[in-house]
Design brief:
The chain has 446 residues and is an alpha+beta fold. The chain folds into four domains: 22-70, no CATH class; 87-201, Beta-Lactamase (2-Layer Sandwich), CATH 3.30.450; 207-277, Orthogonal Bundle (Helix Hairpins), CATH 1.10.287.130; 286-439, Heat Shock Protein 90 (2-Layer Sandwich), CATH 3.30.565. It contains 14 helices and twelve strands. It has helices spanning 24-30, 32-49, 53-69, 75-88, 94-102, 121-126, 143-153, 203-238, 245-277, 289-299, 301-307, 326-343, 395-400, 407-417, and strands at 107-111, 116-119, 159-166, 170-180, 194-201, 286-288, 310-313, 321-323, 349-358, 365-373, 421-427, 431-439. It has a five-stranded antiparallel beta sheet. The protein is elongated. The structure holds adenosine-5'-diphosphate and magnesium ion.
Length: 446
Amino acid sequence: MANDKHTPRSGKSYDAEPFMDTGPLLRLYAARWVLLVAVIGLAWITYSTGSEPWRAAVVFAVILFATAFLPRRRKVTRLKARAQARRLTMVPDVHMRKLAAALPDPCFILDRRGIVRFANAPGGTIFGNVKEGDPLSFRIRQPNMLAALDNVLDGGPIEKVEYSLKSHSERVYEAWVTPIHLSAEPMGGARPDFILLLLHDQTEQKNIERMRADFVANASHELRTPLASVIGFIETLQGPAKGDIAATEKFLGIMLDQAERMSRLVSDLLSLSRIEMKAHVLPDTQVDLSKIISHVADALAPLARDQNVTVNMCACDDSRWIAGDRDELVQVFENLVENALKYGQDGEKIDIDCKKIVDPADGQLHYAVSIRDYGQGIPTEHLPRLTERFYRIDVASSRERKGTGLGLAIVKHILTRHRGRLLVNSVSGLGSTFEVRLPVADSDDL
Ligand SMILES: Nc1ncnc2c1ncn2[C@@H]1O[C@H](COP(=O)(O)OP(=O)(O)O)[C@@H](O)[C@H]1O
Ligand SMILES: [Mg+2]
């Protein structure tokens, strides 16, 4: 963009110097009325003085020659050209504006004094209401951005800085400060005619990076804790408790618990990564949801007995076909029913229900499987974060119940792959309802 040849709105070249280089014929044409007056004047002088006509002809030839070949610039035209050239270095031309307006990111064109000469629609609101003619430095507080603008205004090369903006939530931008020179070959270090400031939103990318880093840190922490405990007990058994049968019995029990905890964690981590790998592949088999739900209820019956919880099942006799992966869907319902049994134990019962509904979100037929418990419930502020990896309302109570904090993250990933959704409804003190919505298979009619 810096080396583009720009044309002003009139369509003529804006350059001041070649402005009057019109050629002899055009110059004669431009001076036609003056020449006509000269002809009339010479004719009148010749007639009134009675001089030889050839003299008048020579004088006219000299005038013609001077008009056609002597370069001349009218002062007014010269001043106009200069003013236009100056205006063009203050106001970006229509092409520049159209390009900036077409960019999806917030974008500003500043003149060589740092004054906003154009802001596209996303840029118009990003720093409050920035108007043309405002100095941008009044709106920007961060020193690194101000320094980058100054450097480029002083003739420096393109700069890239990180810029964070705090409104209701913090957003992080990559700000590109690019000098624009209108002349085809700008001198090295010459001050630019304009500056293009482009802000590229990096918030989502930063969040993903942060989540990845958090995930690795959490996973290693979760593994390191039981590992350190196992190592500690082994050292005790090799040293101070060597030969102590009672201590050996007790410590081996704890070590088994810790090893099982690590094993659960590793298998959940592997599940997550397996599901992530096929996140965009739709399941290609048809499964009967009713059979899966009955299977899960049967498999968890011993746990329900241990917890003293009654499981009330919907009538699951009819087949309910969906496109799905059986093992993954078993994992979904196992996680949800297990959670209801463990965390909703106080309520002493859970209800499992399955209905065919039209999902208002897309107008499509879905099976809605709800798992409702009557336990402590979940405080509202936790609801949006429940499906984050390792997010637990109470870490100690989750560990006590052999939780890894990955169950609902796995559920969410599996449902996403199945084009399904998880809805959570909970009233603190009154229990929670986890509802799974899965699209009805095409062959399964109403
Ligand atoms: N039915 C429920 N009632 C109350 N809290 C629940 C329920 N289901 C899940 N939670 C909360 O959500 C957290 C995350 O659940 P999950 O991802 O399955 O991890 P965990 O391995 O801890 O069970 C749990 O630690 C618990 O605090
Ligand atoms: Mg769980």
